[in-house]
Design brief:
The chain is an all-alpha fold and 159 residues long. It contains seven helices and no strands. Helix 3 packs antiparallel against helix 7 and helix 6 runs antiparallel to helix 7.
Amino acid sequence: MDGVAAWLASTPVAQAMRDSPWLYPIVETVHIAGFCILVGAVAMFDLRVLGWGRALPVSVLARHLLPWSLGSVALVVPAGLLMFSTQPLAFLHNPVFLLKLMLIVAAGFNALLFHVGVFRSVVDWNTGRRAPAVARWQAALSIALWFAVIGCGRMLAYV
């Protein structure tokens, strides 16, 4: 893995990211903006599942917010990879970065389980009704995981 990381750090893109006084901050801003969209959409949906805004149909909110979440990934992932390319060895040996990646995987897995599991019964609790306990638990877990990802991302500058 260290060999691939060293190769990545030597690419022209990584060199440009390190040499330009503007490129890294611009890419980081895109990464943060994408994360704001992603976590904002996820949090709005999760808060609805937790019981806020029961007049809003869960299925309608999902159809509206899911494209925003997925679209934001088109900003977050490439920008994150570009930032990673500047010092991949340091990131790969940073426990906070590794924790951030594990939390992202856990949040994604939680979302997948939600959509293939309890969300299939959304017609039973779509509007005006309390979501099943497992749905509420997964929504709370989702919010906690994404806020932990944000915390790890912030801590990377200090660890």
